[in-house]
Amino acid sequence: MVIEDNKYVELTYKVVDDATGTTLLHIEYPLGYVHGANEILSEPVMLALGGHTAGDVIEIPVDCTVLYGERDEGLVFTDLIENVPEEYREVGTKIFMENEKGEPREFVVTRMDDKTLTVDGNNPLCGRQVTFRVEVVSVRDATDDEIESGGAVDPELDDIMAKAKVH
Q: How far is the C-alpha of 104 from the C-alpha of 97, rounded, in Å?
């Protein structure tokens, strides 16, 4: 069965930085979605998946500058560690802040030493050339419920949630 609209697809993937060969993200547990109903990955990746079948391994180059823009060094801030609340003093911690217009932006703690802490508001992929290495695990017809929700539907979970509702 080939990937096309209204097919339930499971896949694993990793994102590799073309410049360094470093794996930036690795999804090992199959991720399921309904093709054409739920865009779980970037448009170039979703388009490239069409027509493939279970067992296919696809390498899809993606210019993240097109998706996320150029890297903006104005979104990188370093401050003295003593000015940063304790709960944010770990590399990888996400911090949500608003600009003067009230627009939210996610920053990530990227560096820390004994004296300073650096946060970065750029998308981690912006400005990079990457390759998505996708393995198609399975393809099947999606149910009507899966098409409506864009992904897997677990009847047992639906029953549990229905019983948990306060009447």
A: 6
Q: What is the pTM of this model?
A: 0.72
Distance CA 86, CA 90 (A): 9
Q: Which CATH architecture has domain 7-67+126-148?
A: Roll (3.10)
CATH number of 72-120: 2.40.10.330
Overall residue count recorded for the chain in this entry: 167
pLDDT single digits (tens) 3-43:
999 999 999 999 999 999 999 999 999 999 999 988 888 88
Task: List the chain domain ranges.
Answer: 7-67+126-148, 72-120
